[in-house]
Amino acid sequence: MHALAAAPPMSVPAPLRRALHLLPLLAVIALLATPPLGAEGSATAADAACGVLVVWAVVRVLRESIRPLSRTAALVMGLPVTGICVAAMGAATPGTAVAGLGRYLQIFVLVPLAVLLLLRDRDDFRLAAAAVVALALFEGGVGVVQYLTSTGASYMNEDIRAVGTFGASDIMGMATVVSCGLLCSVGLALDPAPAPGASRTHRRAALACAALLLLPLAVSFSRGAWIATAVAACALLLLSGVRRALAVLAVIAAATVVLAGASGSGTQLLQERLASITQVESAPDQSVTDRYTMWSAAALMWRQSPLTGVGLKGFPDHRDANSSLALSSGSDTAGAGAAFKRQPLLSPHNMYLLVLSEQGLLGVVTLVGGWAALLVAGVRRLRLTRRQGAPMDCALIANGLLIWLLVDFFYGDIGGPSTAVTALVLGLAAWWALATHRAARP
Questions:
Q1: Any bridge partners for residue 158, and if so which?
Q2: How high is the pLDDT of residue 244?
Q3: β strands within 344-384, DSSP E
Q4: Span 336-346, pLDDT tens digits
Q5: Other CB atoms within 10 A of residue 16 CB
Q6: I want to staple 185 with a disulfide (CB 3.0 to 4.6 A). Which of 65, 75, 151, 209 is the partner?
Q7: Averaged over 133-146, what is the pLDDT?
Q8: Radius of gyration over alpha carbons of the chain, in Å?
Q9: DSSP one-letter code for 10
Q10: In angstroms, rounded to a whole number, what is the distance separating the alpha carbons of residues 25 and 428?
Q11: Which long-range contacts link 410-413 to residues 24+ away (Cβ below 8 Å)?
Q12: HSE-CB of 286 using CA atoms within 13 angstroms
């Protein structure tokens, strides 16, 4: 009895404690693979998990009774609230204002802030990045099966477009997740000063994951994701060092050749899709024509109200009055278990123009300016970390994801079940750029 009474209580292993601490964040990542809770366009399980994540972060801050943010972090993370609230006051109806305000605060303020507050050190960051890679491998695997079995979304009259579990209504969802997972893998593999305990096996596994994710990214047929991933990967290679960059480029080139050769009859479609990137001005298809037309419409909306824009979610109401006859009635979606549907064009598919048209110059300065501040601060801290000889994997991943997002915003915007990925990317970038304590705990 005395021996039993004197025995020390069983301690929870450190990896398990870390996983429990990050459970709300890991739940958001895992639930991204689930379909919407109700009708198409409704909230998803990942959105509900985002709410839990925000509450969890607030409770943690209150329990620890610490100053959670520096002045710089509070300014950068809180500045977008001004432009969003002003634009909400200019919305067409109170319901539209509330819906738009909640969505923008969730994606650009609350969830990134919760991620910033929840992550304690580099090990927490690495676990979150590994979860993103795992989600990307799952979604990519589903996408490849869709491509090989012709059960994906419709593309060129064939059901071969890989969309993962996001369905034909969110054709960019799988490409977004796979791109983020690929960049996380590249960042983990490129670190010239790996963390203690990181072996060559871990880095080779990260490279293998990056190579595997190239195929689902290719068969997503998403030109915007291809361009953004290529730009971000090149930026990571340059930031990590020239020698390592050359070695990784050689591996990626070899993997690309092998995977392209294994893609069978789809190789011709991939080549045509790649060639279409250079033909967007000389011979644009209807999707590119629609995009150009909506870009022009967004610019006209901004000219009408340059300071505050037309209000949150106001683009659809003002689109037809500012568009030419070249704009089609919508885009066709089908396949991946869904019937044929005409999808309305509700945004300009350019986040910068969407902010400019709906929030005006005030929104651009506060929201886009905050993203620029994150990038500048993140790169500065990366250079400082490099001079100190500390592990750079977190810096590479955070900056790579942010660069990807900022480039992808030229070809897309928020919307659909995969929108929570945007909030997670901004949160990881904010943690690296703005967090006060980033040293790994013993």
A1: 155
A2: 64
A3: none
A4: 666 666 677 77
A5: 10
A6: 209
A7: 94
A8: 22
A9: P
A10: 11
A11: 410/224, 410/350, 410/351, 410/352, 411/223, 411/224, 411/227, 411/228, 411/349, 411/350, 412/172, 412/224, 412/349, 412/350, 412/351, 413/347, 413/348, 413/349, 413/350, 413/351, 413/354
A12: 9
Distance CA 15, CA 35 (A): 30
The C-alpha atoms of residue 379 and residue 374 are separated, in whole angstroms, by: 9
Measure the CA–CA gap between 176 and 349, rounded to whole angstroms.
14
DSSP code of 11? P
Neighbours of 245 (CB within 10 A): 17
Q: Which residues contact 384 (CB under 8 A, 6 or more apart)?
A: none
pLDDT confidence band for 15 (50 / 70 / 90): low
Average pLDDT, the chain: 82
User: Are the CB atoms for 402 and 371 separated by under 8 Å?
Assistant: yes
> At 197, phi and psi to the nearest 5?
95, -15
Q: Are 148 and 197 in contact (CB under 8 A)?
A: no
The answer to whether 423 and 108 have CB atoms below 8 angstroms apart is: yes
Is residue 137 within 8 A of residue 213, CB to CB? The reply is yes
CA 364 to chain centre: 20
> Is the confidence at residue 440, as pLDDT, over 50?
no
The 8-class DSSP code of residue 195 comes to P
Could you give the 3-state DSSP secondary structure of residue 44? strand
Tokens of 381: 């801290």
DSSP state of 438: -
377 versus 268: the higher-pLDDT residue is: 377
For residue 149, what are the CA distances in angstroms to 143, 144, 287, 396? Answer: 10, 8, 26, 36
45-64 and 23-31 helices, crossing angle to 10°: 170
- Range with the poorest average pLDDT among 37-41, 85-89, 354-358, 421-425: 37-41
**Distance from C-alpha of 149 to C-alpha of 18, rounded to nearest angstrom:** 39
Residues 162-216: tens digit of each pLDDT: 888 888 878 888 999 999 999 999 888 887 655 555 567 888 888 899 989 989 9
Helices and strands in the chain, H and E counts: 19, 4
Residue percentage of the chain with pLDDT more than 70: 77
Q: How far is CA 212 from the centre of its chain?
A: 19
C-alpha triplet 112, 117, 122: angle, nearest 5°: 95
